Structure formats: C-alpha cells, structure tokens
Amino acid sequence: MRLRSLFLAATAAMACCFAQPANWIDGYVLGNGIRIHYWRTGGAKPVMVMAHGSSDDGLCWTNFAKEFEAQFDIILFDARGHGLSDPPKPGDGPDAQVEDLAALIRELKLEKPILMGHSMGSASVAWFAAKYPDVPRAVVLEDPFLGARRPPASNTPEDRERRRLAILARNNMTLAQLVDECMKNSPKWGAAECATWAPSKRRHHPDTAVGTAAQRPAMRELFPRITAPTLILKADTLSPTRQENEAAAGLLQRGAIIHIPGAGHNVRRDEKQRTVETLKVFLKPLQ
Fold first, then answer.
1. Considering the domain 2-286 in this protein, what is its CATH number?
2. Is residue 6 within 8 Å of residue 185, measured between CB atoms?
3. What is the pLDDT of residues 136-153, one digit of tens each?
4. Nearest-CA neighbor of 110 among 137, 139, 86, 81?
5. What percent of the chain clears pLDDT 90, i.e. is strictly above it?
6. Which residues, in sequence order, are CB contacts of 78 under 8 Å at separation 6+?
7. At 47, which helix (H) or strand (E)?
8. Read out DSSP for 141-192?
9. How far apart are CA 230 and CA 224, in angstroms?
C-alpha cells in the first residue's frame, strides 16, 4: 500500500510539473470567432495535425507525437473549451469544431496536412475531410463511432447543468486524485500517459456540456465524400460489430480499417506500440 502511495505521489508530481518538450513551441490563432491554442513540434517536414478527444487537450498527444516528430511537423491543438483555447459560445453550431480546424489550417497556412483525430476529434476530422476534400493529404481516425446515428441524449436545462457541475467537480480534483483515477481505470496506459491526461481534466471548460454532438452527421454519410487516403484504427471487437465497422469503412473511396488487438476506445494509449507500428506503415509513403 505504501509503495502504491509513493508511486501515485511521484506520478502526480510528474503531472504537476509536466511540460511539453523544450524544442516544441506554442501559440494562438484567431478564427471562427474564438482564440485557438496549439502546440507545434516544428521543422521543415510534412505537417500532421492531431485533434484530441472530449475532455482531453492537445498535450494528451505528447507521448504519441514524440514517436513521429522526427518525420513530421506535428500540430497539437486544443479544441474549443479544452486546454488553453476559448470556451464554446451560445449558439455554436454542430460544425463549430470543424470550422475551428479549418481556421487553424488557414491561419497557419498549412499545405496538405495529414489529419488525425481521436473520438470527438475523429468526428471533426472526418467531417472536415468530407467538407473540404482537397485539403488533407491523408486522414487517420482513432476509434470513431461507425454505427448509425445515436438518439440524442436528454438535453433539458437541468441535464445541461448536471453535466456542467460534473465537469466542474473534476476541474477541482487534485492532480493526485486524477492520476489515481487514471491508473486505476486505465492500468495499461502507464504513468507517463496519466501524467499528461490528468492536467487536461482541470482545463476542461464546463460549458462544453452544452454540446450539439447529436446533430453531427453519421460517419456513414461522410465517408463517401472523403477522397484522401484514410486509415481507421479501431478498438478490438467481436462480430457483428467488427463486420459493421468494416462495412462502414468500405464506404471510403481510399480507406482501410485495422482493429488493434487488445485495444479499447483509447487505441493508442491501450496498445501504443502496435498503434505506432501500424500508423508508420500507413504514413511511410507520405513522408
């Protein structure tokens, strides 16, 4: 018990002092009505933009991005209401994050970036690639939801306030408590991943609880309009879900789907090495 306490304390201290690698830069752009924050590895290399999942932020990609920064100039941006980007605004449309990504690419003058997204970020990336098919060089989607559109969750004022308060409660957790939660619920991730995950929960804005995710188009509607080479990295799953995933991927013009053995929704965190190896094979012709 004492060893576990010492380990969690050390991991929490790591999270408290966590910073991006010294050679990375960060900055802001103004676009789509907000200030968007990003981190960037830099260098005269092909550009890869990574869009994180809900309640994460750009730095949650840190350990994964390090595997690719020698070959790519990687941009890790904070979605609105996450990290250091501005919070959502009343009246935001369901495509707000799509247009945030468009603004980031435009303001940074990125040419043919590779786009990768996880979960919420995969929905934004796929919608962007369908709406602006000539922009991405390639698309990578980490465990996107590929089923039929889900019925909308209850969204009464009381529901929204409950969700806001739940996010606020997490904002007020200590890093030690968040690290303990991470290590307990996701033991495969390891201390370094929990150290990047924990601070993002304290920066997650409660106003993201008032979302419009249910109004986004289903992936099956978007895939036929995506023309860039596309790789889907999917959680390991059994039939018939696997067959449904593969049928959805078959709607892509130039797509492939790979289920990573042993992975859950956080594919790259659950099975990092397998995910890195799979992605490197896909990206090699694009360097």
1. 3.40.50.1820
2. no
3. 999 999 999 998 877 777
4. 137
5. 82
6. 36, 37, 38, 52, 57, 58, 84, 85
7. strand 47-51
8. EES---SSPPPPPP--HHHHHHHHHHHHHHHTS-HHHHHHHHHHH-TTT-HH
9. 11
Helix (H, G, I), strand (E, B) or coil at 199: helix
Question: Any residues with CB less than 8 A from the CB of 284 and at least 6 apart, and which?
Answer: none
pLDDT band at 212 (very low <50, low <70, confident <90, very high): low
CA distance 179 to 191: 8
Amino acid at position 260, single letter: I
Strand stretches in 199-272, DSSP E: 230-235, 255-260
- pLDDT above 80: residue 154: no
Asked whether residue 20 carries a pLDDT value surpassing 90, the answer given is: no
Cis preceding linkage at 240, omega within 30? yes
Burial class (CB in 10 A: 0-12, 13-18, 19+), 55: buried
Tell me how far the alpha carbon of residue 145 is from its chain's centroid: 13
